[in-house]
Specification:
By secondary structure, the protein is of the alpha+beta class. It has helices spanning 8-12, 15-62, 69-79, 145-195, 211-260, 266-298, 309-326, 345-362, 416-427, and strands at residues 84-90, 96-99, 112-115, 125-131, 137-143, 305-307, 330-335, 341-343, 366-374, 377-384, 430-435, 448-453. The strands form three sheets. A five-stranded antiparallel beta sheet has the order 2-1-5-4-3, with helices on one face. The protein has a five-stranded mixed beta sheet with strand order 7-9-10-12-11. A hairpin with a 5-residue loop joins strand 1 and strand 2 (96-99). The longest helix has 51 residues, at 145-195. The termini are close together.
Length: 463
Amino acid sequence: MPAERLRWRDVRCTTPFRLTLLLGGLFLAALWATLAFSYLLTARELTARSDRILFARAASLLAEPPARLPARIRAEIANGTPGFSWFALIGGDGELVVGNIHLSGRVRPGNAFSIPGQAGGHAPVRVLTERTAAGETIVLGRDMSQIRDLRRHLLLILLGSGIAGSVLVLIAAVALSLAPLRRVQALARASGRIAAGDLAQRMPITGRHDELDQFAGTVNLMVDEVSHVVAQVKIATDAIAHDLRTPLSRTRATLYRLRQRESLPTAEAGIVVDALADLDTVIERFGALLRISELEAAGRRSGLRQLALPPLLDELVYLYQPLAEDRGVALVLEAGAVPPVYADGDLLFEAVGNLLDNAIKFARSTVLLRARQDASGPVLEVVDDGPGIPAAERVAVLRRFHRTATAAAVEGTGLGLAVVSAILRLHGFALELDDAGVGEEAGAGPGLLARVRLAPGGGVNFI
């Protein structure tokens, strides 16, 4: 059976995925906090370093005599020292004496601050003002473009590192979830086969001795015990059915010969007839039990082949048409275009025949045998307008001897659907019971729709 496709919903619901995200989230929170702290600390240190340079240069200018200060500032502007492009000397009356930087408003000397770019520049300028002994104000501006670019690159590096870490955590969460999820799917497939009746199936164990292996080992022990008990019960049931069938058949033959005697009084003859009917019912039940055991034990998979459905359906209708007419029921066939299926023709004939037999017994007026194609593949449906089966009993009727309250007055052994279920399980087909909805208007009940989903030819998956 091919591996099921892993869906994102299944991956994100696994415990490894959630634990990885939780631990990864804590790690990322610490990482982002560290990166943010590093960025702020670095940016602050770069700004402080620029301020220290500004204070050092201002101290150099303050050391100049007042008379030589304008010439010194002109020389600094002319030299164009990288990083120092902005100088000014403002007189005590607030008028610009010399310089290439303009400040708006009053500023407090001795403090460094940032202003927008000067003369059309886009880079911010870090400015420091100092008061000279003559009452003039020296203004120094340091171009912050390099520091700005450095901070920008640092921010991009830190953001990239954080995003990459987040992506890696997500990838790790998905990667760590895939292997456990595949193992859980394998366990689910095995448990599905066990639930379908294959008690020889066991949960796969990888040998890692982790919690999944421990769980699989526990389930395997449980299945061993259950299969042992079921085998013992089955052996006892089969032995009883096999051993009693022969003496019951001999008893029936004796009663039949007794019934043929002309000298037998009428009252005793009636008793013999009733006894023969009871023996026939018991023998029929033993035969059905042995048939189910044969199907479950032997398998008969060697008889599987490509099978066309229309000839099989025609033969079924031909066989059951007289029975339907005797009961006043119309048997209708609707065979659409369906592909061949991979099946044992005799067994499939028996299974659908049992469904038709049940439908004819309970139908009021009509039984429909329909073959069609839907999205999942070929489908066979047997529809009647009888009382139907309550939803709460649709699983129970597939077990041996279970009969609904509406079936009490109808002849039968309670084993027909069990035989159908065993045959369909052998093929990997599915049986669904549902309301047909054909008899509700007449007040006769919902009717029964027995739907058999068939695997297309060559694609059967054995349970």
